[in-house]
Amino acid sequence: xxxxxxxxxxxxxxxxxxxxxxxxxxxxxxxxxxxxxxxxxxxxxxxxxxxxxxxxxxxxxxxxxxxxxxxxxxxxxxxxxxxxxxxxxxxxxxxxxxxxxxxxxxxxxxxxxxxxxxxxxxxxxxxxxxxxxxxxxxxxxxxxxxxxxxxxxxxxxxxxxxxxxxxxxxxxxxxxxxxxxxxxxxxxxxxxxxxxxxxxxxxxxxxxxxxxxxxxxxxxxxxxxxxxxxxxxxxxxxxxxxxxxxxxxxxxxxxxxxxxxxxxxxxxxxxxxxxxxxxxxxxxxxxxxxxxxxxxxxxxxxxxxxxxxxxxxxxxxxxxxxxxxxxxxxxxxxxxxxxxxxxxxxxxxxxxxxxxxxxxxxxxxxxxxxxxxxxxx
Length: 377
Ligand code: PLP
Fold this sequence. Notes:
Aspartate Aminotransferase, domain 1
C-alpha cells in the first residue's frame, strides 16, 4: 500500500506511542487528583503544555488542550463572540476548513455579519483583500496558516496587522502547519491559534488552542473547571503526553524533512506533468506546504479516479477527508475559480514514511489510471 494521504491523518510517531503507553496503565491517575499519582499526571500535562508552547513560541499559560482542531476552531470563533458582544462582524477566508466555516455560519444565523474573503487563483488570501473587509466593529479575522487541500501558505502576519489596525483579533487554523513549517505566534502577531495532534504524528482527538494572554474568551465546555476554567473535562493525559512527544520529534526533523518532502513532491509533479496532458497543479508553487501536491485532471470522473487508485494500492483523496463522500466540488477549488465539468481533483500528501520508490510507483499508477479512464469513454 502506498499511503499519500498524510494531510487527512498521519500514523502515530513511535516516540508518541512509547510516551503514551504508561499513562494508560501504571500512570493512569486523574490529573485533578491530589494524591501523588495525580500530581504526577498533572506534571506530565504541564510538561507537555510547556513543550508544545515552546514549539509555538508561546507561554505555557497561553495554551489550552482541546479534543482536536475542530473544537479549537469552534472555540476560537464562538468563545470570543460570547465574551465580546459589542463587536458583531467577523471576517473569514472562503477556503477555511468547515471547522471554521460552520461556526461562522452559526454566528451569521445569530445576527453576526460575516465577510468571506476570496483567495486569488493561486489560493492565496491577500492581506489587502482582508484590509478592505475589516471594520471597526470586526471582532475577529480567521485565516488559516496552511490550506488543507491545495497546501497554500497564507500571509498571516500581514493579515494579523490588518486585523489589529481595527482592534480585531487574529485567529489562525494552523492544523496543517504545526510540525511541518515554522510557526511563531509572537513573530506573526497571532491572538488565537488552533492545532491538532494527529496531523503531526500524535493521537487523534487531541489538540489545542493558543490564546494570547489578555484575550477575552468564554468557555464552550463547562464543568469541573479544568484548564483554568476555560475547558472543562478530565484531561486526556495519554493524548496530551503523546502530542508533546510527537511535536518534539516533528520539530527536531523539520528542516531536513521539509526539504526531503519538497524534493519528492517536485519530482512527482514533474513526472505527472511530463507523463500526461490535460492536467494542472493547483495552488501556489512557492507558498506551499512541502508535502502537498494537488492536481486536477480533465476528462475523468472524480470517484472513478480515486477508486482505481485505491484498487491499485494508492491511498489519496480529492481534497479534505471530511468532505469526501459528499459529491460536490471542493469549496476551495470553487473559491479559487478553478472548477469546471468533468474534472477530477487529486490531493497527494507526503509524510515521514514516504519514499522515493513509493512516489515513483504512485506516479505510474496515476498515469495508467488516467490513461485508462480517458480511453474507456
Ligand atoms: N482544520 C484543518 C485545516 C484541518 O485540516 C482539519 C483536519 O481534519 C481540522 C481543522 C480538524 O481537526 P481535527 O481532525 O483535529 O478535528
